[in-house]
DNA sequence: GTAGGGTTAG
């Protein structure tokens, strides 16, 4: 075929019909085999097709194969590389183009490339360069360079300078240039050094003085107001509009949702509906998110049903984003099954779908499931890692959380402050102070130390590692705090038996007008409980309802009952259970049973245990407490009966286990340990200690041995308790005078509690023990709990 | 041949 004919044939084909990649390949092949040199027009179209189908390699091949591609082809390629995020190749082509044949369009493309690559400085530099070289900027140049300004510091000054240039080059009346300028001014407001009202005013003046406006002009100004928190100004403009521009409505609705003004969001949504403005995925996702945040389950489900009924041919993008929002909606309302159903039925999923279903599983504490989703994900974004790390930590998987955090770093991903918070929480779970401190110093180095989530995690970490003062330091030096910080600090004091201080801090919180939430009351109730402050606890329980409108949940009642039980008011506690507006569940009975144990009320204990056996027959704690109660009374037949019951039902007792950190290594001891390599020397050291302790009056309290055996053996059994072994190991290994910090998975044993008082005197060191419930600080023969535990 | 707005994940 005659090459010229072929060319015109291509021209027609290329300009009229959408070209598939296959067709492009065919033309490309023909060009190569026939030696036909296509016009720039054809070349550009082909490059464009390849790029739109993500085939940048072919595009470059085409470019390289054709001798001396002209400026238009080069520019197309720069733009293509830019839109695919490959700045390296874009630069290569641009700078290989001789200066004398570059034109304004090639500069525009390169400036955009830098801007897309989030390199605002290079974009601005190139703009200045082109001006020095004498190229004339056009409206596209300004649109490109102005959009790059949001990426650099001192944007306001640059904005004003470019504003002058715009006027100088006579393009101030071009709508697209004005839009870009307005948008640049609006973006300045995100800098803390800029007064948002002044840049918004500059933007508004531009808007008001525009002779003609397009949809984007309206959107830029309204979205600008919304983003900078001036919802009223945005709404005023919206109400005065004659045109119905969907994007503006959507921006307004999302603004209301972000500011928690849900009523207005719903009202606007309904208005859109009644005015016949097409509701698209943006409107729906915002409104679904409103129902998620506002806890409006029924309304959310109605929206869901409405979408299914009315959207008969939804686009792919519509299905994707709406379903993503729905996953979160069902997750936030505790409906994992529904969330999973939506996810499973989705024809296509993106990063957000995967991240949403991952957090759905994490929130529902289905860690196994979350783990397999995490492994299955096609792309693990830093967010997914973060969700997984904090999910593991918050569900007590400290070791796994920390491991994942380290793995994230090994894979070259930079953990954000939330990921650090997860890792720090992992340390809190493990009681790993060394790791926690290292993470703290990393935070300081990275400048993440002002992060709210990381600092809140630090408070908890230091507290759970036994360093209340360090927790306090973090709390006091935080640039701003939220109710989580207050709750964490109050809890820190409460766990360490400093109930009065916890209450004082709570009162301080009220003075600073921070509203307490349900967590605050849980914390303050346990503070009162640990410190034996019955009157105060009752008072706070009442004010929770009367002054703050928080309906006490089962967990609040459980703490109130715990408070009364510890103080020996078992009958009153019992009567509270009867006055509750719901049937008592396991937490209530457990609190009562613990009270019965402390005060040796076996009759009530048996009744309560029966309830618990029914509710959770596989729970070891009930059997243990009951058998221990019989054992203290010497009723060994009954002990045997309970043990037999356990065996029959296949219930296993969680073995006691304690651990201590020495030089960044965690050493674990079990009851009657024979596993730890140095356990023999630990036993020998303990024997010597006991001799010294007896001189000071220590008598092993064998009532804490819960099996029937000779008293000599009982003393031996006591000496094998895991917490004793860990404490002794600490005395042997830690530098002289350093406090001993030991962690135990169960509650501390009574004889160990007594023994540690004596040990603290013999070795003249502070011993800190964290058990399942709280901390004990032993110093000079006394414990911080005042024996009230 | 080049630029530009609104959403959903912690």
Automatic annotation (TrEMBL):
SUPFAM superfamilies: TPR-like. Keywords: Repeat. GO terms for molecular function: RNA binding; zinc ion binding. One of its GO terms (biological process) is RNA modification. Residues 697-789 form the DYW domain. The keyword Transmembrane helix does not apply. It comes from the Eukaryota. InterPro entries: DYW_dom, E_motif, PPR_At4g14850-like_plant, PPR_rpt, TPR-like_helical_dom_sf. PPR repeats lie at residues 103-137, 245-279, 350-380, 381-415, 482-516, 619-653. Belongs to the PPR family. PCMP-H subfamily. This is Pentatricopeptide repeat-containing protein.
